[in-house]
Amino acid sequence: MKKRVALIWPRGLEPAYALPLPYASIVSNTPPELCEFRLFDLALDQSGPEELGRKIAEFKPDIIGVTSYGMNFRQALGAARAAKAAAPEAAVVAGGPHPSAWARGVLKHPEIDFVLKGEADFAFGDLVKELSALSPDWTSVPGLARREGGKVVEAPAAVVENLDSLALPDYRFIRLEEYLRRGYRLFSDSRPSAPIQTTRGCPGTCAFCGVAAMNGRRVRRFSTAYSMRWIEALHAEFGIQWFNIIDDNFTNEPEHARAFCEAALRLDIPGLRFGTPNGIRMQRGDADLWRLMKKAGWEHLVVAPESGSAKVLELMDKGLAPAEMAPIIRDIRAAGLRLRGFFIVGYPGETRADLAETLALIKRGGFDYTELLFFQPIPGTAAFEKLVAEGEIGEDFLPSSFSFGERAYVSKELADVNFPLLFFKVKLGEAFRNPRNLLRLIGRTDPWATARKLAGLFVNMLRHKKARGSI
């Protein structure tokens, strides 16, 4: 008998920038005879706990799945609690970046029965089979974490070795058309857009990043032929013209990126465009690749210098020095690509002098747009573990939103800095230096999501009690 599976996408992520792509892959890669899936998308429907409970009770699921990042784990846990109350016999399974990185913390909550760590495309079906068995063999489920005898037993994170063995994700199940209607457009223009992947995994050792817990450090590739089939299918079914490649390391192997671009140039899709909104590693590319990406349909590149301070970059274990940046930036701009830079401010150990170096890099660095991200330790990362060991935060720490200026963690060195005010000053400087860039940026962001972000930043700016001499 088929198991009824309720998949919950919690609140806390903007529909303009994120959609439940992991569920699209789980549904398409789980044998149809195993499950009947239903999606409960709280980001779109805005259902509260009472309404969610009523809908779950009507569906009567055997299994409840919920995914989350660290910053929306509270919302995910609240949804899991409401669902479990409505279907107390159902098994609740948590997955996604936060549970993958911090399974033992997630399993402290009695609402959660299991955690699937890593890539659950196939592992979810394996878990359903064992939940259906009279004598389950939990060791046969890759990535499974569970409670046993008062302890948490964890398997290594699940990894799909042959990415071409995956069926294409089911975008209709995750209501892509409704996301497009609501303004999904991650750094894209008005063309219909959707996220895809060409690789998984990242060999970087950045102390603040939790990607390795989800996808591992070894980069695996979809074949170029698979990627082109994915693009053509989305264009044929939904009219997609702008494809956001959400890899964490698209250019890690430049030859892979070149082969992708050359194949894309042969596609018969009018107005074809690409973006890499998670950023590319600046050192993994050259002038020829940037020109080829421009020709294939990139209008801008996202890079992540993170800091202008050599000391902070070393603390981050970024593997990048400030002196390396300028020639790479010149080559990218010479290729005709606009440039967006990601910077983290408020990192542990960063001083005002370090912050000044970052601000100076932003001004002189040749960036058309910059994103200031206020550092928050992510459970499971090296930075998080260090702060726990030093007694700066507890093991149950959860980050706040990365966008609105909230800071659940504040470094000792920069506790008096009004970071939301700093954000507004940086953006104002960008607007004065090149007003046309501001107009382009407005054309590539959802106005309501942007308004909510600016309102949140403004409120937190006013709440900050400035010390003498603070920014």
Describe this structure in words.
It is a single chain. The protein has a 7-stranded mixed beta sheet, with helices on both faces. A 3-stranded parallel beta sheet has the order 8-11-12, covered by helices on one side. A 3-stranded parallel beta sheet has the order 13-14-15. It has 3 domains: about 5-155, Rossmann fold (3-Layer(aba) Sandwich); about 185-300, Transcription Regulator spoIIAA; about 300-470, Transcription Regulator spoIIAA. Mean pLDDT is about 90; it is low at about 465-470. Helix 1 (about 20-30) links the parallel strand 1 (about 5-10) and strand 2 (about 35-40). Helix 3 crosses helix 4 (about 75-85), helix 11 (about 255-265) runs parallel beside helix 12 and helix 17 packs across helix 19 (about 445-465). It has helices at about 20-30, 40-45, 50-60, 75-85, 95-100, 105, 125-130, 175-180, 210-215, 225-240, 255-265, 285-295, 310-315, 320-335, 350-365, 380-390, 420-435, 435-440, 445-465, and strands at about 5-10, 35-40, 65, 90-95, 115, 145-150, 150-155, 195, 200, 220, 240-245, 275, 300-305, 340-345, 370-375. The protein has about 475 residues and is of the alpha/beta class.
